[in-house]
Every structure is written in C-alpha cells, then in structure tokens.
Amino acid sequence: MTDPAPGEASSSPASVVALTFDVFGTVVDWRSSIVREGWRLSERHGFGVDWTQFADEWRAGYAPAMQRVRSGELPWTTIDALHRMILDELLRKFAIDCLSASEIDHLNRAWHRLDPWPDALTGLNRLRARYILATLSNGNMSLLVNMAKHAGLPWDCVLSAELCRLYKPDARVYEMAARLLGLAPEQMMMVAAHVNDLEGARNAGFRTAFVSRPLEHGPRGHVETPPRGSVDIIATDLIDLAEKLAA
Amino acid sequence: MTDPAPGEASSSPASVVALTFDVFGTVVDWRSSIVREGWRLSERHGFGVDWTQFADEWRAGYAPAMQRVRSGELPWTTIDALHRMILDELLRKFAIDCLSASEIDHLNRAWHRLDPWPDALTGLNRLRARYILATLSNGNMSLLVNMAKHAGLPWDCVLSAELCRLYKPDARVYEMAARLLGLAPEQMMMVAAHVNDLEGARNAGFRTAFVSRPLEHGPRGHVETPPRGSVDIIATDLIDLAEKLAA
C-alpha cells in the first residue's frame, strides 16, 4: 500500500466486497461517442452542426431535467425520456429538421451505445476477479443493459436508480444497492469521476474511489478534483484502481 | 425450422429480443448441489443424514413458505429468509444439533452456490450471442448475483421477483421484467422447466420455452410435461434451446 495521495482518506478498504460504478463519464466516454454518432448523421444527410457543442448541451440539460423530477414538477421519468425531451429542444435550437422519427429515436439511443474509456475493459476485468461489480447509474436499466452488451462491460449485476425511482446522489439509491446485494454499506465502494456522487455514497456509509477523467468534458472542459480527505482512493483510471485495490 | 413437437404452439419467436430464465431447476441443479454440501457437513462432524431427503424437504417447503407471504400471513420476505425458516425446522426434524451459527448460515447460503446443469454454460453462451439474457427468479438479487459469480453464468442482467416484492407466477413480475428491459411482452421469452412459471409468463404476453429437466427431483422424482400447445418451444436442454432459436 502506498501513502495516501492528497484527497485520499487513510481508511483501508479491506472490508469491501462489491464495487458500484457510476457509468456516464466514469466508465464510458459519452462525449466522443455522441459526437461520432452526430457526425454520421450529418454525413448521411449533408448538414453541418457543431456536434461537440450539441453533445455538451445535451449532457448539460441532464442535471436540470432530473431536478424537475426531484422537485415534483415532473413525475418519475427515465433518463431515456429525459434525454429525449432535451434532444427535441436541441433539434429545434440547432435547426435540424431533416431527421425521420426513427432516426431521432435512434439518435436518442446513442446513449445506449457509448464506448468505454480505453482503460475500462482491462480495469473492470481485473477488478471482477476480486469484487462483485455492479453499475449504479441514474441511467435506466435498459440503457445500461444495452450499453453493456454493446461495449462488453463485464458487470456482475446491473443496478439503476430507476429501481427505486430516485436519482443519485440521494442516499437511498446507494442504500438500495447495498440491500439488493445483501451487503453492509461498509462492504460497498462507489467508483465515480464525480465528487457529488461520491458524497452521496459516503452519506450512505459506502467507501469511495474517485477516478480522474480530465477529458470527460473535452480538452478545455471542467476537471473535477475531490476535496482533501474526502475519498478513500484516488485513481487515474480503472487499471490504476485495480492496482490500488490489489486486483 | 422443424415441425412443432407435441406441446409446442406454432407461433414463431422471431420477435424475441430477450430471454428471461427461471434459475432453480432450469439452469442449476439444486438437488445435487445441496446434497453435496450436506455430505461435506456430515463428514466434518461425523453424523449421518439422508441428505437427498433433506434437500427434497427443503425445496418442498419453499412453495408453502411463499404462499404464507402471498396470503399476507408474513410480510415481504426474501427467499434467503424463507430458506432459513425452513432450514431451522429441518435441523430440528433431522436432529442436527452440532452446527455452529456460522455453519448454519453457510449451509443456508448453499443456494448461492448451486452448480449449473452440464449443458447450461454452453447453451447460455451461445444464446447470449443473439439475445439479452436475464434471470427472472423468485430468488433474491444477492443470491442470484453470488450464484452467477460462483457458477460463471453469463447473464446480461440479473432480475428478481424481489424487485417488485411479488413472486412468480404473478403476471406483474414478468411485466416488470419487460418494462425494465424496455421491451414489449412479445419481445420477451420466458425459459423454464416449470409449467406454472410459463403459464404466468404467457399471461403477461411473453413467448415461452419449456426446458425438460427430468432429473430435477432425482431419478424417481416428478417429471413435468407441458400441456399440448401451451408453449412456443420445447427443448431438451439449453444447448437444444440454442439450436431451436438458431443461436
């Protein structure tokens, strides 16, 4: 065991049995994947759009849309349906009016076809030899299952906030995951590239691992850094996480 | 496509996207696995028990225990907890009083360590190339996840009746599975060795595949046969199912 890096707490994760993973941004690179699917559509129809801006605005619409559900303005809504609400607005804003209904539906499901970060499959396969690996995403179950099938993600179990109709970082989402896996919170470790997700997990008694994804929002995008002492492990990617967990 | 066997309906399963599997008896051989674990305990402690009778009575206690939950006599209870209630009775009945608390707990979790039928891994791996494969068991999530890890079962998704706190063959369990996978009932096929499970699935609009497991209850045990025309496919095992689904 090496000395804790800045940001790491000193507690040992020896009790951990299962790792739960944030998915968008932590395991898969949503931005490059969405941009690539956008360019395919542009080429097919011969129109120009700044797909990086489109992808960033699509993703940026996600937190406010969840907030509309949390506040009660909208009833329980899956991420697929929230993505579609945002997409419909963006198609108007970007004046994209040449897509058929089935093309729009296919584009909305681009989130089911996101590609993993280059380290993800190697890291997850190493971690899987030692731990139970589960998703714990705000993405709906079908999205996560289809994505795993597309990308070959070796989950032992797909869990989604959809199963309790709440969104992370509500502590009840993490508590549900521990209960369904038959484990105590201290036997669980949340793995995420987002500080607020790890705070929610810690509030539920989970151990926490921060994975740095400096390119999540592109080369000039926001880079997250966990406050000092706020997480149990800091890893540069999922292979580094496997190293640090001796997996 | 060969002619339908007796018991098979004529409808084509071309629309099917996901297969949901009963697990106890259909995918794993609970009886041999429980007997083997029992003998290990007997050898360690030097006592004799008819473990086949023990296993059969343990399994036989399962349907009446679920019925106590369905009737409202018991609140929602996981299969792990029902197994434990039955086990505690059987330990008294068989006068087994030499086990420690942790040995009893370990024995109860023998259901997490059941071994697959010899054809199961080959059949499932072939089917997985073409279909989404999910469990749909009355077993609780942690039991199914631990079993998959133990036996190397290649599920894309672990689903349990626990997620809606009802037991199969309640149609709402199958409806939940279709909803979570984002599919219409006719895109789902239930795979089971038990007629009542397939009847429940059919009531929810699923396609159905009966897998024959004549040894589920031992060489002289009850053998199930589906009524004529009641299921879409009859298979002799999971490799035969893969053949019949051209997977």
Description:
Two copies of one chain form a homodimer. The first copy, chain A, has 247 residues and is of the alpha/beta class. The first copy, chain A, is built from ten helices and six strands; from the N terminus they run E-H-H-H-H-H-H-E-H-E-H-E-H-E-E-H.
Keywords:
11% strand; six-stranded parallel β-sheet; DNA polymerase, domain 1; 2 domains; homodimer; 247 residues; Rossmann fold
Most extensive chain interface and residues per partner:
A-B, 20 and 20 residues
Oligomer: homodimer
Going across the biggest sheet of chain A, name each strand in turn: 3-2-1-4-5-6
Q: How many structural domains can be distinguished in the coordinates of chain A? A: 2
Write the CATH architecture name of the largest domain in chain A. 3-Layer(aba) Sandwich
List low-confidence stretches of chain A.
Answer: none
Could you tell me the number of beta strands of chain A? 6
What is the CATH superfamily of the largest domain in chain A? HAD superfamily/HAD-like
* Helix/strand class of chain A: alpha/beta
- Binned, the helix content of chain A reads 40-55%
Name of the CATH class of the largest domain in chain A: Alpha Beta
What would the CATH topology of the largest domain in chain A be? Answer: Rossmann fold
Q: Helix and strand succession of chain A? A: EHHHHHHEHEHEHEEH
Average pLDDT of chain A, to the nearest integer? 94
- Sheet with the most strands of chain A? 6 strands, parallel
How would you sum up the global shape of chain A?
globular
**Number of helical stretches of at least 4 residues of chain A:** 10
Strand content of chain A: 5-15%
